[in-house]
Amino acid sequence: MKMGRGYYKMSEMKYVRKSFWIHQYEKEEIFLTEMRKKGWKFKKLYKGIPTKYEFESCEPEEYTYQIDYVKKENDTEDYHLLYQDAGWTEIMQWEAVGGKWYYFCKKGCNMEERIYTDEESRYSLIDSLWKKYSIYFLLCCLLEVNGILGCLNMIRHDELLSVLGILAIAFIVIFSSAILFIFYNVVALFLQRSKIRKKLG
């Protein structure tokens, strides 16, 4: 940030921990847009619970952010050129089940200028996520339930308050939480999918 007479001030960094569910990507876009209006430019994400967002100080500006999920088979040069030709800047990518989430921004953009935001495109996106996460949920359930049964068997053959018993209980809690987390996302995606489908008739 320039201060005059050849002096520069180091950009200030800010970190915000915040989580959004898979179906709440539009709320995440609004969050990033509002942060830019307050003088904080989104830089990147760090994995964690909750997710950590990195921002860099800047002049308060009107920018619109768009987050888009693309399947691996559709992650082509044409996909990126579509955004580039429309004036969007690609910020980062985030690995996801069966594809990637891409973060874009554009100066002075209104909601109507965003790409893939009509109801048909939104339905296609949610439907794709729902199908992929449903399969992922079933696979995880098989693994997690198998893990829970293994832990229960460990407790049955060992004292509950022993080291192994306590570890088994901890893993049961972790496995159960993972199942609930994925199940919630699958249900939320299904409900959102149904809502958009109803609008489309």
Radius of gyration, in Å, reads 22 Å
> What share of residues is helical?
40-55%
Q: Indicate the low-confidence ranges by residue numbers.
A: 1-9
Mean residue pLDDT = 84
In whole angstroms, how far apart are the ends? 51 Å
H/E element sequence: EEEHEEEHEEHH
Strand numbers in spatial order across the main sheet: 3-5-4
Anisotropy-based shape: globular
**Total beta-strand segments:** 8
Fraction of residues in β-strands: 15-25%
Main sheet properties: 3 strands, antiparallel
**Helical segment tally?**
4
Output the structural class.
Answer: alpha+beta
Short description:
It is built from 4 helices and 8 strands.
Structure report:
There is one protein chain. The protein contains four helices and eight strands; from the N terminus they run βββαβββαββαα. It has helices at 25-37, 77-85, 119-156, 163-200, and strands at 2-4, 7-8, 13-17, 40-46, 52-57, 63-71, 89-96, 99-107. Residues 1-9 have low confidence and may be disordered. The strands form three sheets. The protein has a three-stranded antiparallel β-sheet with strand order 3-5-4. A three-stranded antiparallel β-sheet has the order 6-8-7, with helices on both faces. Strands 1-2 form a two-stranded antiparallel sheet. It starts with a strand and ends with a helix. The protein is globular and about 65 Å long. With 201 residues, the protein is α+β, with helices and mostly antiparallel strands.
Features:
201 residues; alpha+beta; three-stranded antiparallel beta sheet; 49% helix; globular; disordered N terminus
